[in-house]
Amino acid sequence: MVNNQYIVEALMYHERLKPFKHRFFYKVFYFKFPIDQLIDLKSPLFSLGKFNLFSFHTKDYLDGSDRPLREKITEVLAAEGFHVNGNIILQTAPRMFGYGFNPVSFWYIYGAEEKLEAVLAEVNNTFGDHHYYLMQGFSEYKKITTSKIFHVSPFFDIKGQYEFSFFSKNVVINYFDKENQNYFFKSSLKQTKTHEFNTLNLLKIFLKFPLMTFLVTARIHWQALKLYLKKATFFTRPEPPEKILSKEVQQ
Asked: Which of 9, 91, 210, 228 is the most buried (most CB within 10 A)?
């Protein structure tokens, strides 16, 4: 359970397995904090809703409004019959110099006894579309499978399943064909270092990752170019699913 605000360094790994191998890894950082403590994230280098070296904008999440995070996430979950009665931890990258793009942010929803009860994966693609995958009723190391219905990479079709696993410090997401047990893609986000949220650590993380939020988008397009040159099959962006949230289909 996270009891403070943290700056987290991690190693992001992606590996494509079909129809050819293609893999890469990058060192990244993100913030991980209880959403009710957002107002307590204070530093001359950090602002809420304003331009700064680091900034956080509530409109970047969920419905795009400036409403409080708890109000928005509670509304999303209540529509699915899930009632929040505990802490909620958000794992996401901030904006830097006013710019940010999160391919995925994770909302960890805890119960009254600080037991992890659900995780909401908020996924964004470079076309401006959004989708939420809600996973419930699981314990650490347990895999949850959900149908892939949201277009992320133009080099993968809308078919198959995602397999999510959440560990104390790591997140693993695999993409596979459940019927044939054929894995197309494997990815992980492994925590390597944790720092308390303060001005000195923000300065250190900036010096270590001075352009990370810009590099996220640049690296996405760079890897896409590599796949194109390798003649990977290109799939045109389909219309986003009518329902913005989907749940697990198997625990």
From this structure: 91
Q: Give the CA distances from residue 48 to residues 71, 83, 158, 248, in Å, rounded to whole numbers and listed in that order.
A: 17, 27, 36, 33
Q: Tokens standing for 153?
A: 């990479």
Structure tokens at 168: 């104390």
The answer as to whether 210 is a domain residue is yes
What angle is formed at CA 119 by the lines to CA 3 and CA 80, rounded to 5 degrees?
Answer: 125
Question: Hey, what's the torsion of the CAs at 143, 144, 145, 146, to 10 degrees?
Answer: -150
**1 lies in a domain?**
no
The number of CA neighbours under 13 Å toward the Cβ of 55 is 16
Per DSSP, 160 falls in state: S
Give the total number of structural domains in the chain: 1
Model confidence pLDDT, tens digit, residues 49-94: 999 999 999 999 999 999 999 999 999 999 998 888 899 999 999 9
Report which of 33, 8, 1, 19 is spatially closest to residue 185, judged by C-alpha positions.
19
Structural domain boundaries, residue 130: 6-247
Q: How far, rounded to the nearest angstrom, does the alpha carbon of residue 75 sit from its chain's CA centroid?
A: 19
Is 54 inside any structural domain?
yes
What is the model's pTM?
Answer: 0.93
Residue 45 lies in a domain: yes
